[in-house]
Structure formats: structure tokens, C-alpha cells
Write a structure and sequence with these properties.
heterodimer; A: mainly alpha; MetI-like fold; B: mainly alpha
Chain lengths: 281, 318
């Protein structure tokens, strides 16, 4: 009886172990298949034209220059907004708001905003910026990306500042330093790598966002640096070209996907190094 | 004992102290801006979607006719599809993510543990449009060729299998969308679950093993109960993601606004409908109806996310 029970437990355990391994293998296979497809379909399209020519119509040669530049500009502007607002708001939560009701509300809403569907952010920005001013613009795209990036920056900034020892703040204040100077020159400085990581994670997140750009920056077939006009971006170009029936445009969409995925991976890896470095020294 | 006059020990305030309140206001304003943007999102969507709610009333949620030409809009189809896709994706993805997490924590040799862990976390960051591309060009054709066609040939007309698998065999249906969605949320959920399982104190697990428990018993009776609340929160977070996911779904769901008739019928989620139609909205009512759809999605996801956040608590934020 006991031995039967024991063997049943053993069998259940073996089945469970097997299931876990199978799950891991299945998951890794699926994800490898995606990366493999990305490389297989994207790499052949990589050539100098991609970086020197704008998006073509079907049948003619072209590249992704306008989309790459557009993505970089919109993400840069979005990150500029997000870093300023996010770091200040995170500082407020950690240093001034603390456990007050208002701070707890902001914290809760920030967490919700953190995983809010990005398509809704696109609709929101369309309502407040595109519709009233009668036109899609890169600036509206940047704002919608910023709304997605801010919660990430706020969260990491607050978390890192909370980790800073109270002694640091007391040391600054004991010298007679104004609080805001203490925050700027001591707290932000010692939390720098954490804040940087938050910024990089936010940057990685927004550089692949498509849905909020569809209704805000739209797309532009031509090279443009004017932020008050529609601007191309890699994700939107992927979306548009993937749904065309033309082979050459679909190939460009694959190459664009490869570029976006590689950029996001690179930024994420950079973020890992940014967190790890201070621990070593 | 001499009394020092206050004037003698009073010193000028430190340089820059006058900016202190200014800095406080700037920080406070930034925090308020967050509140305003979320509030603005809710309010502006509600106002702009109001015409649709007003015109169709409660029928907007229960009617499955979506006809931009006749300006009749009922959102029941996309709402049902959104739930169907998200729940199917979760049902596929949760056991796999759990298996991966347990494997990484309990079974995996320590040489593989870190690389696989990092790979899973990095994959969680891949933009959803990449998953969409893969679904559209690689997975959907394979699925149509090797699953849909053989199944529809094998199913006797009128049988249960035939009813369940009826649909155009082009790979664009709610089942493929669910699978792509499942693959997309898998790394994310696995990373969170792994993080949770790692938070179980080693003493607890070791005392379990010490009493002779198998690893299945340790995971099920010690680790899982210890993180139960947060684990449910993490699952809700995954569900919230799946509900609002746009790009991975839009490419492979087939875009039809009816109720789903089988696993392989094409459909459209709320997010995919908005993404597909908003820029080509034919009239004021069409835009309003799409924004009203957005409000429905807003309520759904915010509800799920609020529950998730509540369960995860403010201390353990995954």
C-alpha cells in the first residue's frame, strides 16, 4: 500500500517534471521560430539602400530612410517629454508625496496607465491634438509615445529613490543644503544608473509601439523633418506594407521588423548593463 | 547664563533655498499631470463616444450588426471576440508559462538557468508588431495548410467537429489570433511567474524537500500557496495585456464583425477594429462608434488591471 502510494507520487512527479520541460522546450521553440523567421526574411533585404532611400511605391527601388529618421525623431521627442515629466513626478512620489492619499492615488493610476492598451492612448491623442488642429503630426505621435513612456520612468525613478538611504538626505540637509539641491546633486546622482535604466526600458517599449502612431503621426511617403506634419515611422511602415499584396513592399516590412526588433533588443541589453555596472564598482 | 539674541544666530538662508517651493510645485505638477492625462483619457473618450451610446443605448453592447454604410453600430461581435481571444490565449499561455517558470526555478541546471531566464525577459520586450508579422506571413499559412484543411476534410458534414472548425481555410481566424497572442504574452507571464517563485524563501522549500516531498508537492503545496495572491495578480495583468493588444491580433484575426460561429471563424477584437477602421471612418457616427468601442475596452481593461494591482498589492509590484 505504502509503496503503491509512493510510486504514484513518484509517477505524478515525473509527469510534472516532464510537463515543465516540454513547456520550456515548446516555448523556446516558438520564440526561436519567430526570431529565426525575422532573420531569415529580414536579413536578405538589408543593404545600403535601406538607409539612404525613402519608402517606395511598389515596383521601384527604395529604402526606409524616412521611417528610420521619423522613428528616431518621434522617440527622441517623446523621451525628452517623458524623462522631464517622469523624473519630476517620480521624485514627487518618493520625496514629497510619500504615503499621502493623493500620492497613493497617483501611484495606483500610474500602475494602471503602465499597462493601459496603447490603442486607447492613440485615440486620446487624436481627440485632443489631431482632431482640433485638423491634421496628423509627428508631434502628436511623440505625445502619445510620451504618455506610454512616462509611467515606466515614474515607476523606476520612484523605486530607485526609495532605495536611497535616508542618511543621504539627512547628510545633505545637515550641511544646510536646500532640499531641492540635495535631491539634484545627491539623490539623483546616486540613483543615476537606476533612472537611466528606467529611461532605456521606456525607450525600448515605445520604439516598437504601433497602435498609438496610427491615428497621430500617420505615415509619410517622403522624407520629412517637420514635426507639425505627418511623419513616417518604422512600425507604421511595417503595418502598412505588410497588408499590401506586393512582394517587394512585404520584404521591406520584414527588414523594418528586423531593424525594430534589433533596436529594441539592443536597448534592453544596454538597460541591463546600466543596472549592473554600479554593483561591480 | 546669557541669552543670545535671535538676531545673532540667525543666518541668511542657504543659497538657492528660494527655489525649494518652486521645485516642489514642479514635481507636484508633474505628478498631477499623470492624473490629468489618465482623467483626460477617460473623459475625452467618453465625451467623444457619447453620440454612439446615446443613439444605440444599451443595444450598442448587445447588438452584433456593425454596418458603417447604414450607420448601424453594435459592438457585441468585437466584445465577444475580445473576450474569447484573450481567454483562449490565456488558457494556452498560462500552463506553458507556469511550466517554464517552474522549470527555471526547480529543474533547470544552473548553467542554463541564467541564459534562459535572460532570453525569456528579453523576448518579453519584442514589439507586438513583430509577432503580428510572424503570425501573418509564417504561422497563418502553415496553420491553414496543416491544421485547418486536414481537419475540415476529416470532419463529416454536420458533425460536431465540422461545426467547431467551420471557416474559410486561410489561417486568419480567432484561433490563430489566440495562439499568436498566447506566444506574445508567454515570455512576459513566464518572467513574472519566475520572479514570484524565486521570492519564496528557500527555507520553506527546503523544509518541504526535507520532509520527503516531491518537487511537484513542493511547488503545489508550498511555493504556489505562498505566492497565490500575486500569481493571480500576474495572470490578471497578462489578461489585461491580451485584452488591449492590437497589432499581434489585427493581422491574423480576419476582420469580421459577426459573432464567432466556430473556433476557426474570422472575427475582430475591439482593438483590431479601432486600428483597422479609425482612419477610414466614413462619418461622424462611425468615429463615435469606434471611440465608444474604445470606452468599452477602457472599462474592461481598467477593471482587470485594477483587480490585478489590488491583488499584487503596493508592496510586491511585479
Amino acid at each position: 500500500m505504502t509503496s503503491l502510494k509512493r510510486s504514484a507520487r513518484g509517477a505524478a512527479n515525473i509527469a510534472f517534471t516532464g510537463f515543465c520541460w516540454v513547456a520550456t522546450v515548446v516555448a523556446l521553440t516558438a520564440l526561436t521560430a519567430i526570431l529565426w523567421a525575422l532573420i531569415q526574411k529580414g536579413v536578405p533585404g538589408l543593404n545600403l539602400d535601406i538607409f539612404t532611400m525613402s519608402t517606395p511605391s511598389t515596383g521601384s527601388a527604395g529604402g526606409l530612410l524616412n521611417a528610420i529618421v521619423g522613428s528616431v525623431i518621434m522617440c527622441a521627442v517623446a523621451m525628452l517629454i517623458a524623462m522631464v515629466v517622469g523624473v519630476l513626478a517620480g521624485t514627487w512620489l518618493a520625496e514629497f508625496g510619500r504615503r499621502s492619499v493623493f500620492a497613493e492615488t497617483v501611484r495606483f493610476l500610474n500602475d494602471i496607465l503602465l499597462s493601459a492598451p496603447s490603442v486607447l492612448v492613440g485615440l486620446f491623442v487624436w481627440i485632443i491634438l489631431v482632431n482640433p488642429f485638423h491634421g496628423f503630426s509627428a508631434l502628436a505621435g511623440s505625445v502619445s509615445l510620451a504618455i506610454i513612456a512616462v509611467p515606466i520612468v515614474v515607476r523606476t525613478t520612484e523605486d530607485v529613490l526609495m532605495l536611497q538611504p535616508t542618511a543621504l538626505r539627512e547628510a545633505g540637509l545637515a550641511l544646510g543644503t536646500p532640499y531641492w539641491t540635495t535631491i539634484r546633486t545627491i539623490l539623483w546622482k546616486s540613483a543615476r544608473s537606476g533612472i537611466l535604466t528606467g529611461g532605456l526600458l521606456a525607450f525600448a517599449r515605445i520604439s516598437g509601439e504601433t497602435a498609438p502612431l496610427l491615428f497621430t503621426s500617420l505615415n509619410n511617403q517622403f522624407f520629412s523633418l517637420n514635426v507639425t506634419k505627418p511623419m513616417a515611422s518604422l512600425p507604421v511602415v511595417i503595418f502598412d506594407f505588410a497588408l499590401t499584396p506586393y512582394d517587394d513592399l512585404q520584404r521591406l516590412a520584414w527588414t523594418a521588423s528586423l531593424l525594430v526588433a534589433a533596436a529594441v533588443l539592443a536597448i534592453n541589453i544596454a538597460a541591463r548593463f546600466a543596472t549592473r555596472e554600479p554593483r561591480r564598482s | 547664563m546669557t541669552i543670545v539674541a535671535p538676531a545673532l544666530i540667525a543666518r541668511p538662508p542657504p543659497k538657492g533655498a528660494q527655489f525649494d517651493p518652486l521645485f516642489l510645485y514642479a514635481c507636484g505638477a508633474a505628478a498631477t499631470l499623470l492624473l490629468v492625462s489618465l482623467g483626460g483619457l477617460v473623459i475625452s473618450l467618453t465625451i467623444n463616444g457619447w453620440p454612439a451610446f446615446h443613439k444605440f443605448g444599451f443595444g450598442f453592447l448587445t447588438n452584433a450588426t456593425w454596418d458603417p454604410v447604414a450607420e448601424v453600430f453594435g459592438a457585441a461581435g468585437p466584445i465577444v471576440d475580445t473576450f474569447a481571444c484573450s481567454i483562449m490565449a490565456l488558457a494556452i499561455s498560462l500552463p506553458l508559462a507556469f511550466g517554464v517558470a517552474v522549470c527555471l526555478v526547480e529543474y533547470c541546471p544552473s548553467i542554463l538557468r541564467r541564459p534562459i531566464g535572460i532570453a525569456v525577459e528579453l523576448l518579453a520586450g519584442i514589439p507586438s508588431i513583430v509577432y503580428g508579422m510572424w503570425g501573418l506571413f509564417i504561422f497563418a499559412p502553415l496553420f491553414a495548410q496543416y491544421v485547418q484543411v486536414p481537419l475540415s476534410e476529416a470532419a463529416a458534414p454536420g458533425s460536431l467537429l465540422d461545426t467547431l472548425t467551420a471557416g474559410v481555410p486561410n489561417g486568419a481566424n480567432i484561433f490563430t489570433a489566440s495562439i499568436v497572442l498566447a506566444i506574445m504574452i508567454l515570455p512576459y507571464m513566464a518572467a513574472v511567474l519566475r520572479e514570484l517563485l524565486l521570492s519564496v524563501p528557500p527555507q520553506l522549500r527546503e523544509s518541504g524537500y526535507g520532509t520527503g516531498a516531491t518537487s511537484l508537492e513542493v511547488v503545489m503545496s508550498i511555493s504556489l500557496p505562498y505566492v497565490r495572491r500575486s500569481a493571480i495578480g500576474a495572470v490578471m495583468l497578462g489578461l489585461g495585456r491580451a485584452l488591449g493588444e492590437t497589432m499581434a491580433v489585427t493581422f491574423v484575426i480576419g476582420n469580421s464583425h459577426d459573432y464567432p460561429k466556430s473556433f476557426f471563424s474570422s472575427g475582430s477584437t475591439i482593438a483590431s477594429t479601432i486600428a483597422n477602421e479609425f482612419n477610414e471612418a466614413t462619418g461622424v457616427m462611425h468615429s463615435a462608434a469606434l471611440i465608444a468601442l474604445g470606452v468599452v475596452l477602457l472599462v474592461m481593461t481598467f477593471g482587470v488591471l485594477a483587480i490585478a494591482r489590488f491583488l499584487l498589492g503596493s508592496e510586491q509590484r511585479a
